[in-house]
Each structure stands twice: as C-alpha cells, then as structure tokens.
Amino acid sequence: MKILVAVKRVVDYNVKVRVKADNSGVELANVKMSMNPFCEIAVEEAVRLKEKGVATEIVAVSVGPTQAQEQLRTALALGVDRAILVETAEELNSLAVAKLLKAVVDKEQPQLVILGKQAIDSDNNQTGQMLAALTGFAQGTFASKVEVAGDKVNVTREIDGGLQTVALNLPAIVTTDLRLNEPRYASLPNIMKAKKKPLDVVTPDALGVSTASTVKTLKVEAPAARSAGIKVKSVAELVEKLKNEAKVI
Ligand code: AMP
Asked: For burial by CB atoms within 10 Å, which of 66, 119, 135, 236 has the most?
C-alpha cells in the first residue's frame, strides 16, 4: 500500500507570533519555521504502518516555497521514502492546496492519504475535508487510532463526548488528532541519509491547477491585550463585584 502524507511548513509552535506593522499578515522574516505538529503525527503514523508491513511506500508532499524542502527533508529523515514539493511563492487558500493535492493523488494513486487535522498557522481545519470532496474518497477526520484491515481502514475519531469508530473503504483520507501517536525524533544518521532520498519539485502549472484565490485576507490583528486583574479581600467583595460590576450572577 502506498501512503501519501501532506506536510505543511508553518511558524514553529514555540515562536511568539507578531503581526506585521501593515496588518497584512504575520511576521515571517527571521522566524523559525517547522513542520506543522499535526503533520508530524501524520508522518509518524505512516512510518508506523510501514514498520508493521502494512505500507510499502510513503510519499510526502508539501505545497509552499522553496524552503519547504527543509520540512520535506525532515519527513524523509523520519522514514518517508520520497518527497514532492509543489513550489509556489504565493500564500494559497485551502481550496487551492486541496486542488493541488488532488492532482498529486491522481498521479500517485495512493491507497491512504494522511493529513494533519489542522495547520497551526491558519487554523483552517478544512484541507483534508476538501480533498475528500474533490477525490470522492472516504474520510476519517480527527483520528486517534488508525487500523488497516484488508481493503478497509478503521478510524477511531475524537468527537464531542467520546470516540467514534468508522470503517472506510480504501482509498481513504485520514486527518490526525493529537492523541494518535507521539512522533519520534530524527536521528543524525537518518538526517544524513535523507539528503540522498529523492525530492521532486513541480509547479502548480505543471499539475494543470489554477491557484486563483477565492478568499482575500482583509486584515490581521493581534488579540486585544488583557487588562490587569484585581485582588479581592473577601468572598463577599467577590460576590458583590460579580453581581454589580461584571453583572454575571
Ligand atoms: P488546514 O486545513 O490548513 O488547517 O490544514 C490541515 C492539513 O492539511 C495540514 O496539517 C496538512 O496536512 C495539510 N495542508 C494544509 N496546507 C498544506 C500545504 N501548503 N502543504 C501541504 N499540506 C498542507
């Protein structure tokens, strides 16, 4: 079975994000970039399926600038066999990314596509779902357990109030939730070996996909600064303030 894993380059989760002075987006100059954490979980799951003998090949794909090759090399160091960068300097919305991923799916014919449930920069939580709609594949989102059984994959999903298990016919799309697994770190020898693994670069044009945007970002603003709290001297004072100032009781 071939698995395709989608990997996004995002601002590292430890970075304190700053909004650009002109409110057009967030500052990316000299900011540490990494693989989206939910994509790390997707790579880990694919590698585990290969280690179990379920998968025979893992291909990672990223849509982004030249520098996204760094995140693809990380994926290769973690156990992915080869990588594809769909290179674009533009910031694309989810539908454009999903259309590009669909073109890669058409070419690669994977049995399973694993994506993160969400990219931590844009918090869209929609690329996997859009890819499922475009390909017509079954989807199991927010996966906390993935088990391939014959021509089906059983996905346990984290939903409000519990867990739901669904059986999907292959080919299928899975998006990863936080509890699916704990990603490994790449070892130094594997980082060295990854430099020699194949990484193809293609353009959206070569895939025949128009990436014209249907969404325009009007403004990006930092959240309002929280005002300082106060200390109350007694429970009676707290109740009085909740009643008369905050008016919440
Ligand atoms: P989103 O819908 O933007 O929150 O992203 C959900 C998942 O879709 C991510 O975790 C990735 O697996 C995939 N994805 C989104 N954007 C990209 C991209 N530019 N390149 C590769 N994968 C992406």
From this structure: 119
